[in-house]
Amino acid sequence: MTRRAQDRSMTSPPAGKHEPDPGLPDTPTLNAAPAASGVVRNGLTPSHGLVSLEEETRRRLEVESTLQDSEARYRLLYDNNPSMYFTLGADGTVVSVNQFGATQLGYQPDELIGESVLKVFEPDQHQAVLGQLTVCAASPMKVFQWEIQKVRKDGSTLWVKERAQAVMDHQGQILTLVVCEDITARRLTEDYMRESEERWRALFEHAGVGIAQLGLDGQFLRVNPRLCETLGYSSRTMTRCTFQQFVYPDDLQLILDQIRQLVSGKRPSFAMETRYRRSDDVWVWVEMTVSLVRDGACVPAYFIAVMQNIHDRKQAEAGLARTTQLLQTLVRESPLPIVSLDLAARVTSWNQAATRLFGWSEEEVLGRELPYVPQEEAARAESLWERGLRGEIHGPIELRRCRKDGKMLDLLLWPVFVHSEGGDVSTAIGLYVDQSNLKRAEEALLASEERFSKAFRSSPYPIGITDLETGACLDINDAALEVFGFTREEVIGQTTSLLGIWPDPEARQQFVERLRTKGTIRNLEVPLKSKRGEVRQFLASTEVIVLNGNECLVTIGTDITEQKRAEEALRRSEVAVRQAFEERERLSQDLHDNLLQSLYAVGMGLELTKQRIQRISRTNAKRLEQSVGQLNNVIREVRSFISHVQPPVVFEQSVADTLRALAGSFMATGAGEIVVTVDDEAGLRLAPEQRTHVLAIAKEALSNSIRHTKADKRMVTLRRHGNKIRLEVIDNGHGFSPLQRRKQGMGMGLQNMRARARKLHGRISITSVLTQGTTVTLTIPST
Fold first, then answer.
1. Among 266, 483, 621, 752, which one is least packed by beta carbons within 10 Å?
2. Helix, strand, or coil here: 492?
3. Residue 28: per-residue pLDDT
4. Four-residue CA torsion sign, 218, 221, 227, 231
5. pLDDT value at position 3?
6. Using CA atoms, how far apart are residues 43 and 347, in angstroms rounded to an integer?
7. What's the rounded mean pLDDT across residues 185-201?
């Protein structure tokens, strides 16, 4: 029997044939009937046995008929079930497939049975399919499921959800039963939903407006970055709060009422302008649109709120309102009479100044023609009006108008014609100035100019007025003429460049540029040259004024030449004193670090020699003892001399202050920048003797750095490191190599520092790299 025939016999036996049911007892056949021999068994006669056999045969035929009907119904259900059924061998060969499954893939069952199941899969999925079958075969009776794509006969694909279970047939072979459900539509729907979700997420995340998803209780469920940016909170902070915590209190009840209408279905959404509290406690205006989202059962699910930041617009509107109010107030309260007319020359506005000037109140003139035009001026007024409408007239215009009390006024009129968007005149505005007030102002100006002229001429300070652009001298007072040695005739009309007042030709241009940048100059030190060629120092103060339409400079100077000379003399004196102090300090250091140490060394040698000579000659020992005594006297005298020459250590100061003072004294000599950093706790832990040695080592290290390294920056640090105190003196000088250091040997200064370190039970190290600087490190135990 072939594999295909076996498959058909196992899955759907042919009609009229069936296998014995193993669950039923074997039924005897006619060929096996024992009654045919005519022998009476069990008390039955042969005729009785024949009747029983016929009954049994009838019953068996009925059972076979029923079984055939059942198998027909099973085959019908198997072939037409809307699921794909496959029975696969252990190697993936299709043992059976139902009609529906074959049709779904574009095949007939005969085209698939006996073929490898890989025929309906893409090549890149073959290994995965075989692996899945192997896993199923390894676990019989266990159901596995997965989603995978199959390939139809025409090359199109479909997604299926497969459930597989390995079973053992009656011959003991492993078969894999696979049920496939077409989920292509679901996968397409899922892909569409995923793409839709991605589009929504992209819109949500990158929208130019704030978007929030709110729970029915007002809880923020999701917020987009723009809303976080608008309100200044993180998304984590906002999702812990409700919108009620942010909204302006006066607007909260109105918003809640609108939300209740959404929930009740009275409206689909609402929009309003409100304020939200920003993280810096500033109320920000937003235009908020809220919509209710319902689920599939039309039950309210959540709210979507879109918030547009309109804070700038509201501020602009408020600013516009303030400006409008300001302009209205300005017109109303302006000291200048302002009158506006419509195209029929009727009064539309009349401010208080117009009432004060002309005598008519606003109620008397609104809606009427101008009442103050004298009869003799009517024709000219009509002509001016017509020319103004044609755009042929501009102010100011001299007029004569009549007050309510009959008094004539000499006026200046500035007409303004306001045009509509179409370009036509819509309103005419007139601004008036009483000429009598102007004349009084001119008289006051003349008096003021006379006072200024007197102050200008009699001022003891040099004052000059020059043209801003050309530098030409327009006027100069007597004090300036005396300082610079010129006569008035030599100066007036001449430029400062030709007069040679500026020692540097570019200096005036720089002075003017600085004036234009700052707007005014106060007490700027500038050098100016007199007619005799003497350069003197001045503190100059300059203002820009307008004379006859030109920008001019008014400059007042203070001669500080003698003051500068005195300051220079004082500076030189301070330098001399500082140099003397430094020389004195250097002498003290040299005596201490060189001569005194040498004397100590000689004294120690003599002491050792004395001990040896005592065993040889008492006389020589006595003489040597006298020499040692004399040497000790010399040492005491040198120490006394040093104590008088060297400034005493001020223990009243802190270590930090003393180190900064030391750095300051070195920087005053031009040693460059020295930065001092001191850990206060480290300074307090130093005993008086330790302080003396630490300061001496810092002084010696700085001195060596200044003398030898050519550095421009140094740093002194004193810090505590655990139970140690560390002093570091670092510079950015040229440094030295270890070979160079060995050739030069160790100087007395370094020996002295090492000796001090030993007294402190510490150690000193020096590290240096060519062109990268040197570091001197002192480490001592902390007390």
1. 266
2. coil
3. 36
4. positive
5. 39
6. 144
7. 77
Question: Rounded distance, CA 146 to CA 133, Å?
Answer: 12
DSSP state of 712: S
Going by C-beta distance under 8 Å and a sequence separation of 6 or more, which residues neighbour residue 42?
A: none
Mean pLDDT over each residue of the chain, to the nearest integer: 80
Q: With a cut of 90, say whether residue 295 has pLDDT above it.
A: no
Phi/psi of residue 222, each to 5°? -145, 145
Query: What is the average pLDDT across 34-45?
Result: 42
For residue 773, give the H/E element and its range: strand 773-781
Long-range contacts, stretch 627-630, CB < 8 angstroms, 24+ apart: 628/603
Q: Are strands 94-97 and 84-88 parallel, antiparallel or unpaired?
A: antiparallel
How many other C-beta atoms lie within 10 A of the C-beta of residue 82?
9
Evaluate whether 735 touches 709 at the Cβ level (below 8 Å): yes
Comparing CA positions, the residue from 734, 728, 726, 733 lying closest to residue 760 is 726
Phi then psi for residue 507, to 5 deg, are -65, -40
Helix, strand and coil percent figures for the chain, each rounded to 5: 50, 25, 25
Count of alpha carbons within 13 angstroms of residue 480, beta-carbon side: 24
Task: Say what the pLDDT of residue 437 is.
Answer: 62
Please give the angle made by the CA atoms of 635, 638 and 640, to the nearest 5 degrees. Answer: 110
SS (H, E, C) 404-418: CCCCEEEEEEEEEEE
Q: Which two tokens stand for residue 239?
A: 């999702």
What's at 419, amino acid-wise?
H
Please give the Cα distance from 315 to 327 (Å, whole number): 18
Q: What percent of the chain has pLDDT over 70?
A: 80
Q: How many CA atoms lie within 13 A of 250 on its CB side?
A: 4
How many CB atoms are located within 10 Å of the residue 511 CB? 19
Secondary structure element (H or E) that encloses residue 743, with its range: helix 738-744
Rounded to an integer, what distance in angstroms lies between the CA atom of residue 536 and that of residue 559? 7
Tokens (6 digits) for 67? 């079984």
* Contact status, residue 283 vs residue 248, Cβ threshold 8 Å: yes
Helix (H, G, I), strand (E, B) or coil at 648: coil
The position carrying tokens 């699921």 is 83
How many angstroms separate the CA atoms of 211 and 201, rounded? Answer: 11
Phi-psi category of residue 632: left, alpha or beta, with phi > 0 → left and psi -120 to 50 → alpha: alpha
Q: Report the alpha-carbon distance of residue 200 to residue 206 in Å, rounded.
A: 10
Give dist(CA 477, CA 88) in Å, integer: 120
Give pLDDT tens digits for 682-700. Answer: 888 888 888 888 888 888 8
E-assigned strands of 383-520?
397-402, 408-419, 425-434, 463-467, 473-476
| Summary count for the chain: helices (H), strands (E) | 26, 25
pTM: 0.33
Q: Which residue has the tokens 């006072």?
A: 451
Cα of first residue to Cα of last residue in the chain, in angstroms, is: 105
Cα separation of 572 and 453, whole Å? Answer: 44
How many CB atoms neighbour CB 538 within 10 A? 21
Instruction: For residues 131 and 143, give the distance between their C-alpha atoms in angstroms, rounded to a whole number.
Output: 15
Q: Are 694 and 778 in contact (CB under 8 A)?
A: yes
CA distance 525 to 531: 20
Burial class (CB in 10 A: 0-12, 13-18, 19+), 184: middle
Closest CA to 704 of 741, 738, 678, 739: 741
Token pair for 662: 């030391």
Count Cβ atoms within 10 A of the Cβ of residue 748 and give its class: 0-12 exposed, 13-18 middle, 19 or more buried: middle
CA-closest candidate to residue 766, choices 721, 719, 727, 723? 727
Joined together, the tokens standing for residue 766 give 């020096």
pLDDT tens digits for 376-393? 888 888 888 888 888 888
3-class SS of residue 506 = coil
Cα–Cα distance measured from residue 101 to residue 277, given in angstroms and rounded to the nearest whole number: 63
Taking alpha carbons only, the member of 328, 327, 351 closest to residue 339 is: 351
